[in-house]
Amino acid sequence: MPKVAYKDIDSFFKKYKKDLGNNAGRQTGTVFLIFGEESLYKAVLNRLKELLLPSAAGSLNFEPLEGTDINFPEIIERANTFSLLSAPKVVAALDAQVFDSRQNVSQMWENARTAFKDQKIHPAAKIVLRIMGLKGLSLADSIGDKSFRALALPDADGDDYQVWDDILTYCKNRNLRVPRAADSAGLLQRAIEKGLPAGNYLVVTCATVDKRRSLYKAFMKNGTIIDCSVPRSDRRADKQVQNALLQEKLKAALAVNAKTMTNDVFKVLVEMTGFELRAFDSNVQKLITFVGSRKSITRDDVNSVITRTKQDPVYAFTNAVTDRNLKDALFYLNTLMADGPGALRPEQMLVAVHNQMRKLLVIKDFLKSTLGNSWYTGCPFNLFQQNVLPLVKKYDRVLLDRLDHWQSVLSENETAKGAKKKKPKVTTDLLIASKGSNPYPIYLMLQKAERFSRQHLLNCIKFLSQADRRIKTGGADKKLILEELLIRICRQSVPASDADAYLSAVTGRPQK
User: Fold this and answer.
1) Same-domain status, 296 and 215
2) What phi and psi values does residue 195 have, to the nearest 5 degrees?
3) Out of 58, 100, 146, 394, which residue is the most buried by the measure of CB atoms under 10 Å away?
4) What's the rounded Cα separation, in Å, for the pair 364 and 25?
5) 414 occurs within a structural domain
6) Range 370-379 burial, b when 16+ CB lie within 10 A, else e
7) Least confident span in 336-345, 363-372, 440-449
8) Distance of alpha carbon 266 from alpha carbon 299, whole angstroms
9) Has residue 403 been placed in a domain?
């Protein structure tokens, strides 16, 4: 049976329609699994429903069930019951959680936390309720109870617990229910393998699947799988896929309303929205309404109508800092600390910068060592991989040996005092090329290190320490403290007089 990627959906439906017309639909499949991006799999489901149930009585023969507590025995019973009408019958389990298991609770929690920070509270709540169902927990348990939270999220940290409690409060205030933990996957798998009566169709939609599960393999063997997932990373290839999908949606909306938009304006809109299909669709409709009878949508229209909702990644901020690009660094500082569930605390921003400065300092020491002689300004990436990267790894081994020696000395001192302790394994986050790391980011970091002198990096560590102390002792605007820190780090990027004037205004004392 076929597995269809979203980009091939038009050709699939064209062939499937032909097969239905030739009474070959049974060979193409009567069981469907549609998963991935919510707005995409819902659109695919609508197209499938219109294809299978084109008559006026079609709506009567479509039986959807959805929610966190879908009754799968009822789903299976309906799918095996003949329709009272002559038209085909489609039974759908919408947003089903049949691929949930205790083994993927960590991934489920990551999805819930991301949804919460993106201000998608209800979807986050649905995932948390599923986690509780798998764990056999109840909403009657006390919010804030440490033993309860540790049972639900054994690998979580303090920030996770706060998000967890906020979501539980949302669930309690809305009287949401924890779904029953049942063998839904097993029931569904047996029904798929048995087959459905002629003229009956079963559709299951969900956000994620586990391709290792026997249920997924049953869909592969006995049904049709439609993959509507979209890569979410910022790799160039993945960004191209995301932009292609957004352009496709934009083109369709503009064509229906006889509007136009240049590629430059499209880029501005994407920068405001990010890859969030619902937000993007909504913003396009706002712009179409705003311009009225005017045909072209301009950059000024986007700036006037659209509020920036894109969640910038922390690495966009740290990249700007290590590039000594003050303008971008201040911009991302503002967006990442903006009010909302996903806002970062000043302490988190400080740690992010501190980690980068420490890494750059280690790289600078590598470049100043005899091992770093093979690196030169403008070194091509292929030569970096051939000549420099092996020496970077050798430098890392030297660093580990030095740390191991220090650990041995400490262990000997402890033994001399009468304490018998097993020597711990040496670990550090300061390795330049840790095991399994991608060479290209390392190559970029070596280029970034050239923008700093070793003395300036040492000064940056001092500036970070001072900012940390001021933030923790209170009494000053924490955001202003961070802005001052960024100016000190990126000072080369602005005239010294401007930096000194700003710092004097912030701190109330003249700068040297």
Assistant:
1) no
2) 95, 160
3) 100
4) 65
5) no
6) ebbebbeeee
7) 336-345
8) 9
9) no
Q: Are 274 and 310 in contact (CB under 8 A)?
A: yes
Could you tell me the pLDDT band of residue 294, with boundaries at 50, 70 and 90?
very high
CATH number at residue 289: 1.10.8.60
Among residues 309, 292, 230, which one has the least CA distance to residue 257?
A: 292
Same domain, 58 and 120: no
Q: Which two tokens stand for residue 470?
A: 């001021």
pLDDT of 118 strictly over 60: yes
Beta bridge partners of 225: 3, 33
User: For the ranges 15-19, 296-300, 493-497, which has the lowest average pLDDT?
Assistant: 493-497
Same-domain pairing of 109 and 35:
no
User: What percent of the residues of the chain are helix, what percent strand, and what percent coil, each to the nearest 5?
Assistant: 60, 5, 30
CATH of the domain at 496: 1.20.272.10
Going edge to edge, which strands form the sheet with 224-228?
3-5, 224-228, 31-36, 200-206, 89-94, 62-66
Closest CA to 196 of 48, 52, 31: 31
Same domain for 443 and 489, yes or no, is yes
Q: Is 70 exposed, middle or buried (0-12, 13-18, 19+ CB in 10 A)?
A: buried
CA distances from residue 502 to 182, 322, 492 in whole angstroms, order as listed: 62, 21, 14
What percentage of the chain carries pLDDT values higher than 70? 82
Report the distance separating Cα 172 and Cα 166, nearest Å.
Answer: 10
Asked if the structure places residue 9 within a domain, the reply is yes
CA pair distance 350, 467, nearest whole angstrom: 8
Torsion of CA 245, 246, 247, 250, to 10 degrees: 130
Assess whether 169 and 201 both reside in one domain.
no
Between the alpha carbon of residue 139 and those of residues 117, 169, 171, 422, the distances in Å are 22, 9, 8, 43
Residue span of the structural domain in which 286 resides: 236-305
Rounded Cα distance between 231 and 217, Å, is 22
Domain total of the chain: 4
Do the beta carbons of residue 250 and residue 261 sit within 8 Å?
Answer: yes
Nearest to 487 by CA among 318, 337, 324: 324
- Asked whether 251 and 243 are in contact (CB, 8 A), the reply is no
Instruction: Give me the torsion for CA of 452, 431, 463, 328, rounded to 10°.
Output: 60
Same domain for 294 and 358, yes or no, is no
- In this structure, the dihedral spanned by the alpha carbons of residues 160, 166, 171 and 173, taken in order and rounded to 10 degrees, is 170
